[in-house]
């Protein structure tokens, strides 16, 4: 076999599209056939002969003309050479679908953002007290009793909507208790709210879930969702058809593979109520929770990016920046 590329004279790789060529010229021919934009005229009056690209960028139109002259044929281009599952390693059992056009759902949260904007605009409902630390003011703003919560048997699109509404507006009220936050421009306040609300909701519901399980016994498998609802993990049906065409079990299998606040915590645990009992132990536990949370957020962002890349999710949001850490 000829050892030199018939197009540019470099070391040949083999027979591609009907001509002996190198990888670069073969790739160029493929891209040129698939591309909708290709220069129609040559700046050198169609006299280009050097296609190696070592001295000057190779003229695309002359290079294409040389490819065809040497025997390359567009008819030999294979439109589908390998299945997507094999090429990118996508598992058939999760992502196989006969639907070529997927119906997508649009989630409009403009009204929710507008409601949160009004909360930020008017600030805290009660005057900020100088007798309480920032941490105490913020904790009082979002306190509710889990005794009023009712069990939810099915989680559907409306359930997610209610949880998002509760988390987003509660986070907005919580932030209004932070004096430094209220001094920021309104645009920055909204950007911060959209960045932290889902993480805030996760932390807050975790604490309320612990409170709920204490009242229901050691073997409780309940999880708090909002000030109105909780679910039993094993007995709750989850409808995710609005978010993904794949069953919930397959989605779960895919995903499962500040100084002032610190000072307030220090003062709180060193107060007369607590003394210095288990202070170091408490700090270590909180740091451990923080580390686990940050690790979970990073992992979820990576999984969400992969899910969007492979079209696992079929929901589009009016404010996608709000849902970076929501898992959607």
TrEMBL record:
Q: What is its main location?
A: nucleus
Compartment annotation: Nucleus
| Domain Nuclear receptor positions | 5-31
The signal peptide stretch is none
What SMART domains does its record include?
A: HOLI (SM00430), ZnF_C4 (SM00399)
InterPro entries, per this entry? C.elegans_Orphan_NR, HNF4-like_DBD, NHR-like_dom_sf, Nucl_hrmn_rcpt_lig-bd, Znf_hrmn_rcpt, Znf_NHR/GATA
For this UniProt record, the keywords arranged alphabetically read as follows: DNA-binding, Metal-binding, Nucleus, Receptor, Transcription, Transcription regulation, Zinc, Zinc-finger
Lineage, top-rank taxon, reads Eukaryota
Q: Name one GO cellular component term.
A: nucleus
The coiled-coil segments of this chain are none
Q: Which GO terms describe its molecular function?
A: DNA-binding transcription factor activity; RNA polymerase II cis-regulatory region sequence-specific DNA binding; zinc ion binding
**Family that this chain belongs to:** Belongs to the nuclear hormone receptor family.
- Xref: PANTHER family: NUCLEAR HORMONE RECEPTOR FAMILY (PTHR45680), NUCLEAR HORMONE RECEPTOR FAMILY-RELATED (PTHR45680:SF24)
Q: What is this protein called?
A: Nuclear receptor domain-containing protein
> Which organism is this protein's natural source?
Caenorhabditis briggsae
């Amino acid at each position: 076999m000829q050892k030199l590329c018939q197009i540019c004279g470099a070391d040949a790789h083999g027979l591609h599209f009907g001509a002996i060529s190198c990888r670069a010229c073969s790739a160029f021919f493929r891209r040129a056939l698939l591309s909708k934009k290709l220069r129609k005229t040559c700046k050198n009056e169609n006299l280009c002969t050097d296609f190696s690209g070592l001295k000057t960028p190779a003229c695309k139109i002359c290079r294409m003309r040389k490819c065809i002259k040497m025997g390359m044929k567009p008819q030999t281009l294979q439109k589908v050479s390998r299945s997507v599952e094999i090429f990118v390693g996508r598992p058939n059992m999760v992502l196989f679908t006969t639907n070529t056009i997927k119906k997508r759902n649009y989630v409009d949260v403009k009204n929710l953002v507008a409601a949160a904007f009004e909360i930020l605009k008017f600030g805290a409902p009660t005057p900020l007290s100088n007798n309480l630390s920032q941490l105490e003011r913020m904790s009082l703003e979002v306190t509710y009793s889990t005794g009023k919560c009712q069990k939810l048997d099915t989680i559907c699109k409306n359930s997610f909507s209610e949880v998002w509404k509760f988390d987003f507006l509660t986070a907005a009220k919580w932030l209004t208790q932070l004096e430094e936050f209220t001094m920021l421009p309104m645009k920055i306040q909204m950007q911060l709210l959209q960045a932290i609300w889902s993480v805030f909701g996760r932390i807050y519901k975790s604490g309320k879930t612990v409170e709920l399980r204490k009242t229901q016994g050691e073997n409780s498998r309940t999880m708090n969702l909002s000030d109105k609802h909780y679910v039993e993990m094993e007995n709750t049906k989850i409808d995710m058809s609005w978010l993904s065409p794949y069953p919930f079990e397959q989605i779960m299998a895919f995903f499962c593979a500040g100084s002032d606040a610190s000072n307030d915590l220090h003062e709180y645990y060193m107060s007369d109520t607590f003394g210095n009992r288990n202070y170091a132990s408490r700090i270590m536990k909180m740091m451990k929770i923080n580390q686990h949370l940050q690790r979970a957020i990073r992992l979820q962002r990576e999984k969400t990016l992969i899910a969007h890349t492979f079209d696992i999710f079929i929901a589009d949001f009016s404010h996608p920046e709000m849902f970076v850490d929501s898992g959607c």
